[in-house]
Fold these 2 entries.
Entry 1:
Amino acid sequence: MEDQELESGIVKKFIYVNRKAPHGTIYAHEALEVVLIAAAFEQDVSLAFIDDGVYQLKKGQNTDGIATKNFTKTFGALEMYDVEKLYVEKESLEERGLSEDDLSVDVEVLASSELKKLFNESEVFFNF
Amino acid sequence: MKFGVLINEGPYQHQASDTAYKFIEAAIEEGHEIFRVFFYHDGVNNGTRLATPPQDDRHIPNRWTELAEKHEIDLVLCVAAAQRRGMVDEDEMKRNSKDANNIAGKFRISGLGQLIEAGIQADRMITFGD
């Protein structure tokens, strides 16, 4: 059955919008698990990071003190899964005093208005 | 239209499951089709058959099962999220050597691929949660 699904022949524009801080709740961690599984389906995948979601990509995270798995390291492996379109909202970065240099992976920084266009062009919208 | 539904919050704690239920009822009444309802994050807790809410309150897991029976709706709990939170069917019970299972009637446990498939096959994917 899994094979059948993978070979549906339909390719849609998926966007995963990450809005929440990486730690404190499990949303961000489990959202990344969805992206990794989804990579096997050979869809057109984009990830967007807005609001506190931009913290998910912050360099040098260490979760030893809260005894959770530092899943944010996995963002660095997304390229191996052919997930290469990562977008970060400019305004969200600026509001938090962050710049592209603070991020652990290569991203494209987009203004809110440009992101809106990207969202409108997407066919399957997952919001975490 | 064919809808895929994602529910990301547990029962009672959050309105997401109630709103999704009402949405699905209304969609079916209007002649739409529900391809699948996928439960993720704490949403998997909607699938417990061990809940005993007060008698004057709605029974959320039973209500899902009744709706699924009536309209043949596919109710899927994400296996990874379910394992973390102790939602167990008979297969999972055996596989992980547990002494009990707790999944309600019409729910089944499967992989995240089922969510992606819903995204591919449905005309619209709708998320209920925070």
Note: Residues 38 and 114 of chain B are 8 Å apart (CA to CA).
Entry 2:
Amino acid sequence: MSDAELVGRLRQGEEAAFAELFDAHHATIVRLAMAFVKSPSIAEEIAQDTWVAVIDSLDTFEGRAAIKTWIARIAINRAKTRAVRDGRQVPLEDEEQPSVDPSRFGSFGQFRSAPAKWDDTPEMLVSRGEVREAIDHAIEDLPAPQRAVVTLRDLHGWSSEEVCNALDLSESNQRVLLHRGRGRLRAALEAVLK
Amino acid sequence: MSCLQTVEAMTDASEGALMGWRKVRYRVHITICPYCRAHRRQVETTIDTVKGLPPPTVDESARSEAIGAFLRKHSV
């Protein structure tokens, strides 16, 4: 269903259309909010506030952006405001760091030893509790900008263009954040597979 | 291109953002370096594992509260 059709049904007050919208985007909103506020219960509160704002503003939605981008922007604004109110610093700049431990490379930038071959498939890995836990922790530890990008790109399958629109990032900045975020998750997985 | 530079260029490569000589040097290095190919497989496995994580469970009360707010808005 196109955004225009969905918005039409929502404006007519169709409950099933709203339930569909909620089911499609609630988890994304909660996970996005977690990038800024960390606490799951506060993230749920932000998600509720976001839905209230979405409901109140549906009549003013102009369809210039995709509805999911519009909802994400509302959620991010609310999460940032809440983080500031709670005294949490939301870094606007990302920390610069290499994606692989520099000690793994020799003086000419060559790998000192072969990266391990991982035998398990992603399906096998995701079925292991300690792997899920390690990745969850690594995601929690990501700086907010990296976490927001990884959340949308890898956990929710958004395109780079959608992520740039939702987070107000340039394509190149989005790639840098994605690269660093994925780098940290790879390192976390490597640590658990040793 | 060194292994270090190749590793740092991997996301640009997978996003189709490598251009010109950097792209050529990346391709040459990946072709001849088994270590960088092994690292790239680790990155790909990581991404696919993250993509396979189960979605968080939705709080049913949050769902009914939001639907309730929607219906109230449209009943006035």
Note: The mean pLDDT of chain A is 92.
